[in-house]
Amino acid sequence: MENMTYSDAMAEIEQILDRFRRDRMSVDELTAQVQRATELITHCRTRLMKTEEELQRIDTETSE
């Protein structure tokens, strides 16, 4: 998942949500998909935090 882009992860989360909203998942599949969505959300949060840190670093460097 490390190579997955933020956009790709968000698209997969949207697909999972769409299937959930349409009730097209069995209980067993729902469990697996919730677990996958949780992994994707964690990945997105990590990417956002890294981006924020990088922007802060750049801002600090350009402010000096």
What do you see in this structure?
The chain has 64 residues and is an all-alpha fold. It has one domain (6-63). The protein is 83% helix and 0% strand. Helix 1 packs antiparallel against helix 2 (27-63). The termini are far apart. The model has no long low-confidence stretch (mean pLDDT 93).
Give the overall shape, derived from the CA principal axes.
elongated
- How much of the residues is beta strand, in percent? under 5%
Overall strand count: 0
* Unreliable sequence segments: none
First-to-last CA distance: 36 Å
User: Percentage of helical residues?
Assistant: over 70%
What's the gyration radius in Å?
16 Å
Q: Could you report the average pLDDT, rounded to the nearest whole number?
A: 93
Number of helices: 2
Strand-and-helix sequence, N→C? HH
- Structural class designation: mainly alpha
> How many structural domains does the protein architecture include?
1
Largest sheet: none
